[in-house]
Structure formats: C-alpha cells, structure tokens
Amino acid sequence: MDDLGDAVPEEVDFFRCVEGPMHKVTAGHEYSSSQRIPTKSKMLVVSSRFGCAFAALRSSISVYDLSSVRREESENEKARVKLPNSSCAVAMELVRSDEYLVVQVQDAFDAEASRLLMLDTRLLIGGKLSQADFLPTNRGEYRSFTTFSAPTSRSNITGKVDQNANVLAAITRERQIEVFGIGRGSGTLLWSGSAGVPDNQAPISAAFSVDGSMLAIGTMRGSIQFYNSMTGKEGNTIKEVESGWIPVSLVFIAKDSLLVCYKNELQLQLCHIVWHLDNYAATSQSVLGELFYPPLGILEPESGENEVAMLCEPVKTWTLCALANSISNEITIAARRDDGTWNQWELDDGKRASLPLPTDESDFEPSPLGMAIDYTDTSRISSLLEKEPLRNPMPRLFVLTSDEVLMSFLLVDDRPGASCAAVAEVVPESTDRPSSAELAPTTHAAPQFELRQPVIPVQEPPKSKPPISFAANRDVSPENAPVFCYKNSAHGNHPG
To answer: Of all residues in the chain, what percent carry a pLDDT higher than 70?
Structure first.
C-alpha cells in the first residue's frame, strides 16, 4: 500500500458534531440464547418521507418519530413489531422510495440460516407486520447488504415504480452474481454469472454506482470488477493493489469516487482508499489510511470477529461523508478538496462525534450498528459565540450502538452563510398511511417476488444453496449527488 501514497489528514476548525439526546432501545427486544447482536450490519435507517427512524435489535424493529426524538420527548417510539418465529434482524434497508423495508433475518435456532423479508413500512408504522420472502429459496448465510431506491423524480411513489430504477444484487456461496429488478409485488432476474471462478477471484463485496447503472464487485484476489447493472456486461477492472489486501467493503461516495475498505489478515490492518473514476476506470486515488483502530485481537481470524463492515453516509449536496466501522467505536469525517482528492478531517476533541462509554461492567467499547442521516430538521442552530447569528439548519446524523443506544449528532458548518440545501421540512405523509381495515393482516396482500427468465443468463445458479451476500444500490441519484465542495485557502476550507 505504500506505493499508493500517504494519508494526509487535515485539521479543520469550522466544523463540529453537536451531540443530541440519547435513547436506550433495549426494552422489549427479546432474543434467544443462541442469538447475539450483530456487529457488522446496518441496523438503522431513516425515512424522511414518513418522518421516522427504524431501529432493529434482536427480534424486534422499533419505529421512532424523528420530531419527537429531536424534542427529547420520552414517548418517541411510535411502534414496535416483533419479527416472525423469533428471528433476529441482522441488516435492513429501505427500497422503492421507502415503501418497503428489506430485512435480513437470522433463524432463531440456526445461526447459519437467514433469509430476506420485504416489509411494508406503512404497516410497520401502524404496528403491524406483513412479510414476504424476497427470494423464493433464500435460506442460507448472508454476509451483508446495502440498498438502492430510485429518487422520487424517477419513481411515482403513489403508483408504479420502474424496476430498472430499483435494482438488487446477490452474491451466492457458489460464487454466483445475481441481479434483480425490484418491482411492486414482483421481481425480475436480469442476469447472473461468474460461476466456477477460482477461489481467489470469488466475490466478497458489492456496491452499485450512484445512478445505479454499474455494479462494482470486490474479489478475494483483491481486484474490483465493474458490470453493467442491467445487462451484466463486464466493464473495467481495478487490479489488486498489493498481495494480501482484500476489498471487504465498497461504497460509492460520489459518481466518480469509490471508497474501498481493504483488509490484510496477515498484518491485521485496514486501509481505506478512494478510487477516482473516469467512465468507471480508475485514474488516481486518495489514500485515507487506516482510519479505525480496533481493539487488540479483533481482526485475528480465530477471534470470529474478522469480518469488517464499513458504515458510510454521504451528506447530500455536500462533498462530505461520515464514516464508521463495525469493529471500532470511532466516527470520522472525510471530505473532498477543490482538486478532486479526498482526505480525512481532524476535529478537536469537543467537536468530534464519539460513542458513549460502556454501560455495563464489561471492558468492551460500543461500536456502531448503523448510521443514517435526517434532513427534516429545519431548526436554526446556535453559534459558538453569543453575538454571532444563528446558523442555518443542518443535517443530523443518527447512530445506533452495540450498547443499544440511539444517538444523534448535528453536523454543523460554522462558516458564515453555510447551509445544506438538502435540509427541508417534510410533513410525514398521512394519506399513504393504512386504514384500520388495511392494517388487518388478512386483508393485506404481502408483496411476493417471482423469478422470470433472465435477460442474459450466464449460468443458472444452483438451487440447492441460497445466496450468502446481498447488495443493492443506495438512495442517491445524480441530482442528489454531493455538490458542496470544500476548497483550500490561506484561511482554511471554504465552500465552492
């Protein structure tokens, strides 16, 4: 990794993370003795459309009212729904303009068996559960997943949503790549392939591009391969950077920027690199470095904790993202400079987002289970100096910790006139909420996914074994892509 350059963090004094109220979310989340809280998945999502946060712990999903959480009201939990058969949630994502919540659940009696459920979010808000398996035969060991849902401009949220604007990709144990178009009540297998590849080229991570047109696949060999999401046509390749370094997590943080978390099991290290892309071909890179320093021994293979999940939340209209890792209690900020490169921001102790100390007698520090950003708080923010005017509304970062605490941090740019164009008051929908009759499970038609003839079948996957990894693109679009650039000057960074 030394040949790629050194990480050069930048000290920033105009940015701060302001801690908000904390909420304990343990009560009522029952689980069996064979289950444990997952530490490598996304367990928190936020819906601006409904003004709610969905938090999963063990066998339940809790729904929180965002405005009540911000006002520090004690009664902010709108509903809590228990998962079927005492299943344990291990990951979830919103899809189809927040209409559905895809949840990966683990079997209560077999930790190696898991499946994907597709839940109606409006029913969840009403305290009811309607489930449907996302795939007909999806019992198996899943590693992780992330989702893409087309923005409202490409989806009529009250009517039909284009399946090509909502895509899901799965990586199976047999080293198959399967890509599905997500429709309302049905799914279409678009293409599959990569069967029988050598073990060192087996897929290990996946991410869709910002517009959903390309799929990036990280391999055990260390390379990253791009595919056309709709057709499966193979595109450019980012070759392995050094022997032993594996791309365990991928996230597109901009249309032309792919953030990769590499892991070296021999050296027990992490390295984060942003690849700068031109037509999905790597032209240069920004080295962010290790970023996160896990407790001693956590990355050792025999520890059972060597699977790493990177949590990354790009801030809309800003070229900035919040970063965390499932094996560390740290949260950091990475931003783009005016020359197009990315670097880590170093904030003062009182301005960083930090997780709380352990609440029990154990020595284990809490780590993030999920992060999500709320853009619906339009309250103006107090400045650091009393005589300065109030700051414009800013986005709020929510974090769910392994200590079962829901935290929030305002992401505040203190420069005069700074703002986030994505922040806007959203009145949670009421007309879309189900009536009392619709809430009855017997009257709700749960969405079912059917497999149709693949558009470009490379090779049919074995039917005896289910997918082990699942990925779909995040809810980011070209019109929502970050455009607020941080430029260097003699007085620090300024908005471009």
So the answer is: 67
Distances (CA, A) of 215 to 52, 78, 208, 369: 29, 36, 4, 25
pTM for the full predicted model = 0.81
- Listed in sequence order, the residues at least 6 apart from 222 whose beta carbon sits closer than 8 Å to its beta carbon are 239, 240, 241, 242, 243, 244, 245, 246, 247, 262
CA-to-CA separations, 370 to 45, 214, 259, 318, in angstroms, rounded = 8, 25, 18, 21
Q: How many residues make up the chain in this entry?
A: 496
Query: pLDDT (tens digit, 9 = 90+) per residue, 232-288?
Result: 899 999 999 998 999 999 999 999 999 999 998 787 789 999 999 999 999 999 999
Chain-wide mean pLDDT for the chain? 75
pLDDT: is 213 or 459 the higher one? 213
Q: How far apart are CA 346 and CA 15, in angstroms?
A: 10
**Rounded Cα–Cα distance for residues 426 and 377 (Å):** 9
Domain range list for the chain: 2-151+164-430+448-495
Alpha-carbon gap, residue 310 to 59, rounded angstroms: 23
CATH class entry, domain 2-151+164-430+448-495: mainly beta
Give every CB contact of residue 374 below 8 A, 6+ residues apart in sequence. 46, 48, 53, 66, 395, 396, 397, 398, 408
